[in-house]
Structures are given as C-alpha cells and as structure tokens.
Specification:
Blueprint: H1 36-52, H2 54-73, H3 82-85, H4 93-98, H5 118-128
Length: 136
C-alpha cells in the first residue's frame, strides 16, 4: 500500500522530448483577446448607466468641488529650502564618539517632519480644562 496514495505512472524514457508543452507563442496574432468585443460592450453599458444617473454625477461634482476648495484653503508653509538641508551641523567630537546615533550630520536630519501630534494636543487640552465648580 502506498502511504501517499500516489499512483505510479509508467514513463517511456526512450522517447526524446524536443519541445515544451507550451511554446509560449500566442495563438492569436493581434493583441486583442477573443472576447474583447463582449467585454467592451459590458464596460460601455456600465458607463452609460453611470452617466445617466444624476446621483452619481452630483456626487462626482460635489467631490470635485470639495477637493478644489481644500486645495485653495490649504495653507502651504515651505520654510525649509532644499539647499539649506545639506548644510553640515557642527557637533562635538566627544558626543559623536559616545552617541553617534544621536548626532545629526546635516540640517535635513533635524527638520521637524510632523508638526501636529494628535495625542499630545488632546493631552494638553485635558490638562488645560479646569473642572467647573458650582456655587450656590
């Protein structure tokens, strides 16, 4: 009894194999698949349904307007220039020897990447709020 339940196949080793099972040659001479016409018809019908639905058009227009307003109202502050980032930082040889992982080599390594920390601002808000005392 075979423990892996494999059936043994008798192979003819005398037969020479001169090619692959799949020669990797496309059967169709052009770049289109055989069912491309049906696929395009389905896509065009879906597009017609989307274009005729007023809700979808309204949602797309609202989304576009929202993105435009966001772009216009967004404040851009680019205070750090690219050339400024490559300037070397003078630092102590002793600190560089003792704590090389803590020493920045150029200005680009000390630029504050994230200026807004949600958790710290929430903690500050909680600390700043005073309990309301009721007087009678």
């Amino acid at each position: 009894m075979d423990p892996w339940s494999c059936q043994t196949h008798v192979t003819d080793f005398d037969k020479k194999i001169t090619k692959f099972e799949d020669d990797f040659i496309p059967l169709i001479n052009n770049d289109k698949l055989p069912d491309h016409e049906a696929y395009l018809a389905i896509l065009e019908s879906k597009l017609r349904k989307i274009k005729s639905d007023p809700n979808v058009l309204r949602q797309l227009a609202a989304k576009k307007e929202g993105f435009m307003l966001q772009l216009l109202n967004e404040e851009h502050s680019y205070s750090v220039e690219q050339s400024h980032l490559d300037e070397p930082i003078p630092n102590s040889q002793i600190l560089r020897t003792l704590l090389p992982q803590k020493q920045a080599l150029n200005q680009g390594e000390v630029v504050e990447l994230i200026k807004y920390d949600q958790l710290s601002s929430e903690a500050d808000d909680i600390d700043n709020t005073e309990p309301v005392s009721e007087s009678k």
